[in-house]
Model the fold of this input.
Amino acid sequence: MDTAPYSEPYKIKVVEQIKQISREERAQKIREAHYNLFLLHAEDVYVDLLTDSGTGAMSDRQWGALMEGDESYAGSRSFFAMKTAINDILGLPHVLPTHQGRAAENVLFSALIKEGDVIPGNSHFDTTKGHIEFRKASAVDCTIAQSKDPSLNHPFKGNVDLMALEQCIAQHGAGRIPMVIITITCNSGGGQPVSLENIRAVAEITKKHGIPLIFDAARFAENAYFIKTRESGCDNLTIREICHEMFTCADGCTMSSKKDAIVNMGGFIALRSEELFQACSVFNIIYEGYITYGGMSGRDMAALARGLYEGTEFDYLHSRISQTAYLGKRLVEEGIPVLHPFGGHAIYVNALEFLPHIPQEQFPAQVLGVELYIEGGVRGVEIGTVLADRDPVTRENRPPNMELLRLAIPRRVYTNNHMEVVVWALKKVWQRREQLKGLSLTFEAPIMRHFTAHFTPVSS
Done:
């Protein structure tokens, strides 16, 4: 079949200069940063794949909306533009702006979670788990077993194990479970999607037990794309129709709009219950600001509203996810072990297979991230034992089943030539992998340690 060549559905109008410092300089910079990629200066990074959160390029229409932002403290028309977009695309009527996703979690969890509660979900992300454990509650991972095999090509590795969820509810009682969280797509599990069938099945369980179902919706549009392209019977639905089907099952969501709304800052809570909305409004005012700005400027809300529509266009999503797949395919061609199937926003390198001689207590994914930066100026992020943190009771490390280096691709920022730089650099690290040694911690915060931890190379 003669298929037209693929190209991005946009033209480049503005560029930002970047520079490459020498390998010797990079080795010095990472030492000064205590071998923590978060502590590097961004100007010393050539291709920055630390995160896709807030790092995307806004469109001309978003910039135009930003210039028309209404900065009124209360009742801003920019808020109502954002609320209309959320109502239209997600179908949830009550909206609270927050300055980003973890702020939305802070507000919602303040209204719902108390000490001793249990919150089941599919591989809770770091801030989600941190906010839960900070409140002396427990996050219970109910992701399907297939998610733990990085080589398995299961189309929906983010799915919730329905039996595990039922067992969790039976064990702890619905009264101790203030919500069930589904993360779409599942970041900690490798950017893996959740099927519409699974979402509906989870909703049946939560409704039966009277438990609210909440989405961590940071990448809901990417999840909808995978449903459309992978799930039987959904190929004839539009992205927005799939979004409506997903959110019909939910009682609410938190969202970091810095992902699928393609803005540099912002988030929100969207809810079905007016009662819960009123409870959250109290905490929103305390922590974020008035309920029609919630820590956001009017211009950012205006850009967010436009970004929600752009982020749910099929051509944009196809372009974005195709670039991620391009990087994944090229790494596979070079023999680099990566998680399968490829996620929507990132490629995850399997550090346990890449560096089998480095034990998890010496943080192989962190080692790999450090060496990739030294080799090519490419910054990724560890999704492994460092991020998994310590058990809040025993204070022991809790190594996860997978030790991953995430390469998160910003939206509409890099070309495939930049992806080739990543491939080249990882290949160079692969060629000298047997020479690499582990790292040990010299400083760590009591919670969410990966952001500020200090490391040093092990001596032997």
Q: What stands out?
A: Residues 60-310 form a domain with the Aspartate Aminotransferase; domain 2 fold (CATH 3.40.640.10). The mean pLDDT is 95. The first strand starts at residue 47 and ends at 48. DSSP finds 16 helices and 14 strands in the chain.
